[in-house]
Structure formats: structure tokens, C-alpha cells
């Protein structure tokens, strides 16, 4: 019989009240609280806490507190990733972040989802869909990435956007729901 964690990671309906999952979320909350309570002059302590939270992270990654996540261990960070203040990742499923990715303040990344059927929701079951963010992506402040989306390499997501569908490579996309506004040219600025 599969554990609730195995079901969760496979994208199946699972029970988040499972004791193992509760312990893992509590561990992540304690680590993020210690990270968020640290001061700017505690760089090595912040790095230690983040390594414990994620297990590994790419060289040159910088996360500004406060930062919040469900588990931490389901987040893969490339090199030179930057999170501005107040970002949230609900990493119930895998979140894969490429190299040189920038997150504006208040970006929210949601892999968690719930059944559309009210009876199943009442039973407390939930599910998740992974999110993938390609290399050199910039996600503007306040954007929300919904479960299961992929953001293609070198794309830019406008501030305040709600990404409900995949975004291809090399585009500027924005709005609610987020849609491609135009293609980006190599070397383009502003």
C-alpha cells in the first residue's frame, strides 16, 4: 500500500493530515521561521538553514526573508536564483527552478490543488501538480503560478499576473489570466 507522501508526490489524491506529512511541514515551518527571524549579518546561518530546508541549492542563490514553503525538499533551485521579499512556494509537488531566475516580491507558486467535487473536498483530500520554471525567467512581483504550469526559458511574467497555463520560451506574458503579449528579442532591455 502506498503512503500518503507517495500519493502526494505522484499527483494523486492524498490526505494532508497524515502524520509523516504533518511532521515534514512542521520541520519546514521551523526552518523558515528561523530563516525569517535571522538578520542580514547572519549570512552563513541563513545559508545553513536554507541548505537544511532544500537539501541542496544552486551556487549564488539569494532568498530575501520572509520566505515560506510547505516542505522545502520538493524545491529544486538552479544557480543564481533570486527571491525578493515575501515569496511563497506551496511545494506539495516538485517545483523545478532553472538557473538565473528572478522572483519579484510577493510571488506565489502553488502546486497544491483540491478536488472540484465538494464531497471529496469535504473529506479533506487534496492533490498537486508540479511546476517548472526554465532558465533566465523573470517573474514580476505579486504574480501567482497555478498548479501544473511550465514557464519557458528566458520569458518574463508581468507583475500581478495569474499564470493558469504554460507559457512558451522567449515571450513577455501578463494579465489575469496570463497570456502571451509579445515575443522577446535577444538583447532587449526594458
Automatic annotation (TrEMBL):
Record bears the keyword Cytoplasm: no
UniProt family annotation: Belongs to the transferase hexapeptide repeat family.
Keywords: Acyltransferase, Repeat, Transferase
Domain of life: Bacteria
Residue stretches making up the Maltose/galactoside acetyltransferase domain: 5-59
Organism: Billgrantia bachuensis
Transmembrane region(s): none
Protein name as it appears in the record: Sugar O-acetyltransferase
Record carries keyword ATP-binding: no
